[in-house]
Every structure is written in C-alpha cells, then in structure tokens.
Design goal:
- By secondary structure, the chain is α/β, with parallel strands linked by helices.
- It folds into two domains: 132 residues, Response regulator (Rossmann fold, 3-Layer(aba) Sandwich); 58 residues, Arc Repressor Mutant, subunit A, CATH 1.10.10.10.
- It has ten helices and six strands.
- Strands 2-1-3-4-5-6 form a six-stranded parallel beta sheet, sandwiched between helices.
- The protein is elongated, with a radius of gyration of 19 Å.
- It starts with a strand and ends in a 10-residue tail after the last helix.
Length: 206
C-alpha cells in the first residue's frame, strides 16, 4: 500500500484553515501532519515534520515578507509548495511562480481542486495555477511581462526601447501583440490592464 501524502497547512484565517484541514483529511491517501497560522512557526513545523506538500497563504503573521518567506519554504528538502492566496494580479502570480513554487491557487477554489492539485504536484507537475489566472498568464511571454512592467510604470515607447536595447518599432509591435492577446483595443487600455494587474507596483518585500 502506497504511503500517504503528508500535508502541512499554513494559513491564518481560521475558517479557511479549518475547511482545508477537514476537507483534505477526508481525501484518500492524504495525511494532515500539522497546521500553523504563523509563517515562522510553520517553517519550524515543516523542518520537524518533513511534509511532502505545504499549502501556504502568502500574507501571514511572522517575521518575513512574502518574498523571503517563499524563499525559505522553497529551500525545504523534499517539500513542494502550493500557494493558496486571494491575490490574483497577474504580475504578482508571475513573480511568485518564478521563485519555484509548484502551484498557485486562488482562495475561491474548492477543496476538491486543492486536493486534485496536490495529487498533480506529487506526481511531478509544476507551474499549476487556477484556471481563472491561466487564461491571461499563459498567453504572455517573459519578454512581454517586462514590457507590461514598464508600461505599468508609465514608460513611453522610446523609454521601453532604450531600456530593452531595441527599436521603437519593436516596442510598439510588442504592445500591439499584447493588445491582440488580451483582447484590448488601445494603448491606454493596455496600460490600464497592466496597472490593474500589478505591473510596475508588485512588491513581494512588503
């Protein structure tokens, strides 16, 4: 008989924590080995209990900001990280996924989706995210993420071209491609989309 998947849940909203603990513990082959409502205590527990999966909220009481916290959890040997957050800005999600977490789920997801994601992560899948996020996220290339970040900071075509060592025509072409991908019509709409989704303002250090 295969060993149970050991799960640690770190979440400071007690209703959410209780719901995850109750729902996941009912899943065949799952074992909730611990819970915590504080990121520092959760890290201590993770080192002690050696879970296979850590379901982690991003904004928690503790001594570290999200970026440092994620880095610490990602360095745990043998544990894979499933972020469970209410933060849905595309730029924020992109920043978190680039740090090596296995999955990013929104708190609007059902426990059954969290369970299915845990099974996928355990079997080796990575960069899994809520379908609500993936519609926009998976369309955008790394280069286009950079352009969106510059647009979100108010940079013009010439500024973008200078910073990326390309021509103004190339910068304009990338923005036109983004308009098509995101089903937008004007540069102003693209800038508004970039700002709304956190480009230019994402800060994982606070």
């Amino acid at each position: 008989m295969p060993e149970s998947i050991k799960i640690l849940v770190v979440e400071d909203h007690h209703a959410t924590l209780d719901g995850l603990e109750m729902g996941l513990s009912r899943e065949p082959g799952f074992q909730i080995v611990g819970t915590s409502s504080n990121s520092d205590d959760g890290l201590v527990l993770a080192k002690k209990l050696a879970p296979d999966i850590i379901v982690l909220d991003l904004h928690l009481p503790g001594s570290k900001a999200p970026k440092s916290m994620i880095k610490d959890y990602c360095q745990l040997k043998g544990a894979k990280l499933v972020i469970f957050s209410g933060e849905n800005r595309v730029a924020f999600v992109q920043s978190v996924l680039s740090m090596g977490v296995a999955a990013y789920l929104l708190k609007s997801e059902r426990v059954s989706t969290v369970a299915a994601t845990i099974r996928k992560v355990t079997s080796g899948e990575t960069a899994i995210m809520s379908s609500e996020l993936s519609v926009d996220y998976k369309k955008i290339t790394r280069s286009e993420h950079e352009v969106l970040a510059m647009l979100g900071k108010g940079l013009k075509y010439q500024d973008i071209a200078d910073q990326r060592f390309t021509s103004v025509a190339t910068a304009r072409k990338q923005c036109e491609t983004l308009l098509l991908k995101l089903d937008l019509e004007t540069r102003e709409q693209l800038i508004a989309w970039a700002v709304r989704n956190g480009y230019g303002s994402v800060d994982l250090d606070s």
